[in-house]
Amino acid sequence: MPKLLVAMSVAVLSWIAAGSAHGAVTVIGGGLAQACSKAAMSGEDDVKFQEVCTLALDTEFMSPRDRAGTYVNRGVLKLRRTSYSDAARDFDQAVRIQPDMGEAYVNRGAASIGQKRYADSLPDINRALELGVTEPAKAYYNRALAYEGMDDPKSAYFDYRKAVEIAPEWTAPREELTRFSVSTR
Q1: Is 93 helix (H, G, I), strand (E, B) or coil?
Q2: Does the pLDDT of residue 3 top 80, yes or no?
Q3: Where exactly are the structural domains of the chain?
């Protein structure tokens, strides 16, 4: 039976610069929580949107799901500004409120990756995949980043491939795959 061998190219690891992928949560309704959701989903990174999320959490009545989602969304905004510890606290709070929200776990894993705590990210990302997330390709992409950080290129390769399989239009995982060469022996 041929054994699959995966090797990374010697090129500078562009995945460090690329960063992890983040998954926001749709909050239905009106008001500040919805504005926070839209900011997180549209890729905003201005700190003013974090303040909108905070004001929503402090002043608006929300279902537990929407409250947890607002913590996730504020955490996503913090991730974009590389405030990994602050973001992780928001994801922790979301998990306490809604322990079955996969996006809280995948983003907490992304915060760990941002802190170069690759092994710590794996249980969260795996839990997110078990629970289900709206964008599973991002979870596989993040797990691939973690595997690369742990010097496990074979596992990284397969997760990048899975991300491409799920979201073929997303260029980030396809670009990462160009750094690998695969051979059988």
Answers
A1: helix
A2: no
A3: 1-18+137-185, 22-134
